């Protein structure tokens, strides 16, 4: 692999991690909203 391919693979992995992170944030926000509704 040349440097460009390596960089593209790293970017791909980074984007996958970002997707996972965003899913976790969404799950967290959903839980917070559910708790907020229970408190109301």
UniProtKB/TrEMBL annotation:
Keywords: Coiled coil. Residues 4-38 form a coiled coil. This is Uncharacterized protein. It comes from marine sediment metagenome. The lineage of its organism: unclassified sequences, metagenomes, ecological metagenomes.
């Amino acid at each position: 692999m040349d440097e460009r391919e390596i960089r593209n693979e790293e970017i791909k992995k980074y984007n996958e991690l970002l997707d996972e992170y965003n899913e976790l944030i969404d799950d967290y926000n959903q839980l917070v909203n559910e708790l907020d509704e229970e408190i109301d």
